[in-house]
Amino acid sequence: MSPAAAGAASRRALVRRVRWPLALAGAWLVFAYLVAPFLLAALYRGDLALPHPELAEGIAEARAEAPLAVHLAEWRWFALWPAAAAAAWCLFAIAVASPRRVARHVAGATPTSLAGLRIAACGTALAVVLTEHLPSLAGLPPAMADDMGLFELARLLPGAERALGSAPALAALQAATAALLALATVGWRTRATLPAAAVGYFLVGGALRAFSRFFHAGLAPLYLLAILAFAPCADALSLDRRRRARRGEPLPDPERPRPVDGAARFAAWTALALVYFESGLSKLRDGGLLWWHPVNLRTVVYRDSLAPMAFDFDLGLAAAAAPDLLFAAAGLGALTVELGYPAVLFSSPARRWLPAAAAALHLGILLVQNVLFLDLILLQAIFWDWRRWLPRASRAPTEPAPDRAAAEPPGRARRQ
In whole angstroms, what is the distance from residue 176 CA to residue 44 CA? Predict the structure, then answer.
């Protein structure tokens, strides 16, 4: 079979795998978001007769528990799961239908590109830690600390509760975490400093959330640190490589792709892509398919502009008078970026444009809503081609540069 015929057969097989899941998901979304809300509202008001008394009692209990808007929000959240399952199946089918394409994106990483990802992730985490003031938590009463999931395991350690109420202990934790992140960024003793920095970053974030609320800003660097802790991300652009070179130890070629580098880089890309995809799903869960509607977006802008924030650019109230078309375009653009972000896993053009669009989206949120996502702005650098930005630094420090004149053919060397 010719390559063209094989490609056509692969595309036909892909269409057969995804057409029914997509059709069922589309029909479900139409019912769940256009038909079911009217039925639920009629049941809530008692406009529809129910055949069984048990159903009527259940509706009465739901009416007593919460208003209709709360139940509709819960329904929208439930209704997303079948569609999300269909989307996951389609993505899996696409990956299986074109294993060569997936292998090309996974296996194209080099030690230099993985080291650049380490620098971006650790540098971003360092910037997040330095923008906080952890010792101020010591002035809050311990009763304010809420249950924060895995962080509760750390609070069970001996002396943990006392440390949460001690400004010097919190300052030491923040300083130690910042120092470990700085060492991991430059690649010094990375096998020890990077996992320790990930643990410290987890503790810093857990303490901040325990005394405030669970917020998603700053979570993405933790995922990347956890992935890089198991990857050989210091084989290039690191002090570890220089130390190994001085000892005369064998060094990998920083420009030769390795499967382990590709797998680690793809895992990091996947973690960030899931963060954006889940953010888009949460918008649809909370606001429905019309989350992008100008009325809803104006409400969000008013709320954030009038709430006490760390920034106050006063642009939100001024932008609220903008035309509806501008708000609708901004909302649709945000959904497109977040729901389409997983395309960075399999598309080179997506890796060029979607990170830039995401950074622009976060800058707009900062100026209009006074909300800073510093980590998500800086983490777009994990898609940079570090071999282009740092070609000389990626060479082994003890390897002499090749003699180009000796390597060229005689005729070409004379012309030069």
Answer: 55
State which amino acid sits at residue 409. P
Locate 39 and state its tokens: 């039925």
For the entire predicted model, the pTM comes to: 0.74
From the CB of residue 21, how many other CB atoms can be counted at a distance below 10 Å?
A: 18
Q: What are phi and psi of 309, to 5 degrees?
A: -130, 170
Contact 282, 84 (CB under 8 A): no
CB neighbour class for 248 (10 Å; exposed up to 12, middle 13-18, buried from 19): exposed
> Residue 412 gets which letter from DSSP?
H
Residue 258 and residue 108: Cα distance in Å, rounded? Answer: 8
Residues in Cβ contact with 379 at an 8 Å cutoff, skipping those fewer than 6 apart: 120, 121, 124, 220, 221, 224, 272
* Cα torsion 8, 12, 18, 23: sign: positive
Cα separation, 209 vs 227, whole angstroms: 22
The gap from C-alpha 37 to its chain's centroid, in whole angstroms, comes to 31
Residue 214 CA from chain centroid, whole number: 16
Question: How confident is the model over 244-286, as pLDDT tens digits?
Answer: 999 999 999 988 988 889 889 999 999 999 899 989 988 887 7
Coil, strand or helix at 233: coil
* Interval 57-71: pLDDT, tens: 777 777 777 888 887
User: What number of H helices and E strands is found in the chain?
Assistant: 21, 0
